[in-house]
Each structure stands twice: as C-alpha cells, then as structure tokens.
Here is the input.
Amino acid sequence: MLQQYKEAIEKSNIISKTDTEGIITFVNDEFCDISGYTKEELIGKKHNIVKHPSIPKKEFQKLWSRITAKKTYKATVKNLSKSGKEYYVNTTITPILDENGNIEEYIAIRYDVTKEVELNMVLEKHEQILAERVKQQTKELEKLTHTLEKRVQEEIKKNEEKQKILFMQSRFASLGQMI
Here is the structure.
C-alpha cells in the first residue's frame, strides 16, 4: 500500500531529492518532462541546473538559510528548461532528518503553475493598460470640464453685460417717455 501512495505522489507532482550540498540524487519522470533533461543529465548535478538566471542570489540565500535551519521552504519559483523555456512551479522543500536530527537530504515537491502565472501576468498587463486609459480619460475630462467652466463664466459675463445694456435702454426709454 505504501508503494501505491508513493506512485500516486510521484505521478501527480514534480519531485526531486538532493544531498546536503544541493546535488541531485533523485528526480521523477514529471521533473524530467517539465525540465527537458533526462535523469542521467540531472543526477549528480547541482539543482541550480534549472535555475532561471533572472532570479536574484538573495532568493537562493533565503532558501538555503531556511532549509539548513531545518525549516520548510515554500515559494513559486521561475525555472528554465533545457530548451530555454521558462516555467513556474509552486515549490515546497523539506529537509529530511536522520534519527539524530541531522539533515540527511532535501526533498522538493512541486507542481506546475506556469499557465496560472502567465495568465496572471497578462491580467496585470491589461490592468496597467486600463489604468493608463482611465488616467488619460480623466485628464481629458478635467480639461473639458475646465473649458466648459470657462465658457460658462464667459456666457455669464456676456449675459450680465446684456442685462446692463437692456437696463440702460429701459431707463432711457422711460426717460424718453417722461420727456
């Protein structure tokens, strides 16, 4: 029964194991499928073989600091396949301890979230475009409002002048009638 659990986990997740130095000691077929490497190309190599070059060193220092402190590390990680294709995986790395509590190895269990991350990036891009459009439309509306306010003030001034003229004409007409 334990074998069935192991097979179920291996077939539904991307799994690798490394020694305490980060040298790969095991990968499952799912890892090979997503990375594009064969088991022979991976085993015995440093796990950073799939590290994307854009990931800052600081992030890996954080990872190593956490797992060497016997804590689990969780993150969404950007990797690079053998063919140069980027992919994203939700990663959980757990130190495996021996009976004395010393780290014996690390196991990493991942699942592919590339589509979700890419869709999120597209969504963020569209949100930025929409925000820029709203900003632009707001500027245009503010400009139109200012122009409209200016015109209204001008029309009010013209009407006041017309009323003064009409008032003066009315006074002159009254004076004319009185004379």
The first helix runs from residue 2 to 12. Helices lie at 2-12, 29-35, 39-42, 57-68, 114-178. The first strand starts at residue 14 and ends at 18. The CA atoms of residues 33 and 129 lie 36 Å apart.
